[in-house]
Structure prediction request, 176 residues.
Amino acid sequence: MPDVIGIRAATAADGEAIDAVIRAAFAGTEFGHQGEAGLVRMLEGDGDALVSLVAERDGAIIGHVLFSRMDVEADGARLSAAGLAPVSVVPALQGQGIGDALIRAGLDALRERGCAISFVLGHDAYYPRFGYAPDLAARFASPFAGPHFMAMMLDSDAPWPLGGRADYAPAFGRMG
Prediction:
């Protein structure tokens, strides 16, 4: 990792810097940056942001991760759940473990909050290193079902639910 990186909870004052990191991180990718920064703002405005963390170096925000509330039912009961999206690191510092550190810190924060399960829609070569598995997510009906839809139990000793449904926060449905 470059120099000393600090990870802390995002604050309202970080909004513009977070937007800039997200726009830079997604510019020129297959996803572009259409809506990712707006999504973060909508999730926060709706009160659905559960864990929002920034990575800083020398006082500058260089990365961000957001976990938002999900509506999940498993085996007939509601389950406390969070969706990971987005995770962003400024392009010049990508591939140096900053995104990894943000995700791991976010998962720890979810565990501290008593969250039971987390979902992600992302690269199947990247997210399994954190414990996400497409096999677990496949047990849940979701508009995002498919090979890139993954889930993990935040208590690694918890049994996998047999089935249910998983819905992201309403802001995901409002994205252009």
In short: The mean pLDDT is 92. The beta strands are 6-9, 49-57, 60-74, 77-89, 117-121, 140-141, 149-153, 164-167. The longest strand covers residues 60-74.
